[in-house]
Amino acid sequence: MARTPRSKPLLQDSDAPIRSKPRRRRDPAQPNLLLDHMPRRIEPSLCLLKAKPPEGPDWAYEIKWDGYRLSIHIEPKGIRILTKNGHDWTNRFPEIEEGARELGVASAIIDGEAVMYDDQGRSDFSLLQSSLGGRAGKTTSPAQFMAFDLMYLDGHDLTKMELRVRRHLLEELISGRPDSAIKFSEAFHVTGAELFRASCDHGLEGIIAKHLGRPYRSGRLGDWVKVKCIQSESFFIVGYERSAGTFRSLMLGAYRGDQVVYVGSVGTGFKMREMSQLRSMMNKLRWTGKKPPVPYAGKRDIVWVAPTIIVEIEFRGWTSEGKLRHSSYKGRRKIQDNAAVYRIKE
């Protein structure tokens, strides 16, 4: 009977030390494919407000979208859609969530803005705001996500790359999907002054100028600049003027240092349903102090309320007395949207 041959032993009895096969030097022309840790959240890059757009070949110009700033996180465990302040609003934007799922990438973080459009095709914050449900609500109409930056893709941190590279990768990622809720925010090959003039002529809010050579940096550092046709800021409601129905106008407040001060009123731009909702909210916040919550020398019949509700107001400038000029109500802001109440410059 033939004997079964023994396998060659893994370790030999030898005086020679065991050595691994020499490793060749890495070709420096080959890319480094080590994966980067995916952050749970990236603080957004914010726009610095200026009166005129910067000019030159290093700047790209986009339309300023009038919506909610969001970031889409595509992760192995699923999709997260975060607000500017880091709150999870995934369930409010099912169409955007589905569009992100269809991109077919393992991981990504995309910066952009959720928008809805009016009858003339302009993004309209008030439409989007009114379409959002309660704490667990969803949009009643489909919103679109205008993507304008890419911070992370398939295991690679892109924040240190130039904007021109990030936008090239972003356009390749989301192009060719005409039915998707995720769209690429186009940059226009014109001067900043030309695009700003055209946006104002078409009744848009303004433009954004972005430096193509900069990395993605969180905060308001001047890499991104916004120029507005119509000023739009967030203010506190500090009271309302009585009327037979809901209210005649809202009294508005802003910060001067640490103090809230009166900056005028707004009486246009409301829908009846919004007026009823606001009146109900204000009735629960009636001011009980002996003095108004803000210094006020007027003679109107005002019901004062605690400065808690934040609203978005369009206006054409400031009067010499420091009050808003030609103001119009746009909608109520939510704390989750990181609504920053306007601060008066000293």
From TrEMBL:
Show the segment(s) annotated as Disordered: 1-32
Q: Which Pfam families match?
A: DNA_ligase_A_C (PF04679), DNA_ligase_A_M (PF01068)
- Database matches in InterPro entries: ATP-dep_DNA_ligase (IPR050191), DNA_ligase_ATP-dep_C (IPR012309), DNA_ligase_ATP-dep_cent (IPR012310), LigD_ligase_dom (IPR014146), NA-bd_OB-fold (IPR012340)
Q: Which organism is it from?
A: Ensifer adhaerens
* Gene Ontology molecular-function annotations: ATP binding; DNA ligase (ATP) activity
PANTHER family found in the cross-reference section: DNA LIGASE 1 (PTHR45674:SF4), DNA LIGASE 1/3 FAMILY MEMBER (PTHR45674)
Q: Which SUPFAM superfamilies match?
A: DNA ligase/mRNA capping enzyme, catalytic domain, Nucleic acid-binding proteins
Protein name, please?
DNA ligase (ATP)
Its domain of life? Bacteria
User: What biological process terms from GO does the record include?
Assistant: DNA recombination; DNA repair
Which reaction is catalysed here?
A: ATP + (deoxyribonucleotide)n-3'-hydroxyl + 5'-phospho-(deoxyribonucleotide)m = (deoxyribonucleotide)n+m + AMP + diphosphate
Residue ranges of every copy of the ATP-dependent DNA ligase family profile domain listed in the record: 136-267
Q: Which family does it belong to?
A: Belongs to the ATP-dependent DNA ligase family.
The EC designation for this entry is: 6.5.1.1
**Keywords of this entry:** Ligase, Plasmid
